[in-house]
Specification:
The structure is a single chain. By secondary structure, the chain is mainly alpha-helical. It is built from two helices and no strands. About 95% of the residues lie in helices and about 0% in strands. Helix 1 packs antiparallel against helix 2.
């Protein structure tokens, strides 16, 4: 195997690494996006549940035989749960965004490095092609 064949094999390997990097990045981005949508969906379901309980409690509290103070306490408890749910939702969103940012930064760094290595290989192949052309 001469030098041109060796560099061509190296170029193919580097191109495959670049494609693999891209595929892995897209898969990881999709996973992050799915995590976000699951979190969003869970928050929406919990919020709707809190609202339904609050509405039912309000209607129940209008009955004459119901302890109004206990109903107010329950509604306050639901409000506390809703606030905690929202706080945790924001915390989880921040974690997802941080993970996404780290992934993107690492991907850009790795891609830049692979592209630089690939460009050096292309330059070496051109140089070898020129030298071989000059020897003929």
């Amino acid at each position: 195997m001469d030098k041109i064949d060796e560099i061509q094999a190296k170029i193919r390997k580097q191109e495959e690494e670049l494609w693999d990097l891209e595929d892995n990045y897209k898969a990881a981005k999709k996973e992050i996006e799915e995590t976000y949508w699951k979190l969003e969906d869970n928050k929406r379901h919990l919020t709707r549940l809190y609202e339904e309980f609050e509405e039912a409690t309000y209607h129940f509290s209008r009955q004459d035989y119901v302890d109004k103070e206990e109903c107010r306490k329950f509604i306050n408890l639901l409000d506390t749960y809703a606030s905690e749910t929202d706080r945790e939702y924001r915390r989880q969103c921040a974690k997802i965004e941080e993970k996404d940012e780290k992934l993107t930064n690492q991907y850009r760094k790795d891609r830049r490095q692979l592209e630089d290595e690939l460009e050096k290989s292309y330059q070496l192949r051109r140089k070898l092609d020129e030298e071989e052309g000059g020897n003929k």
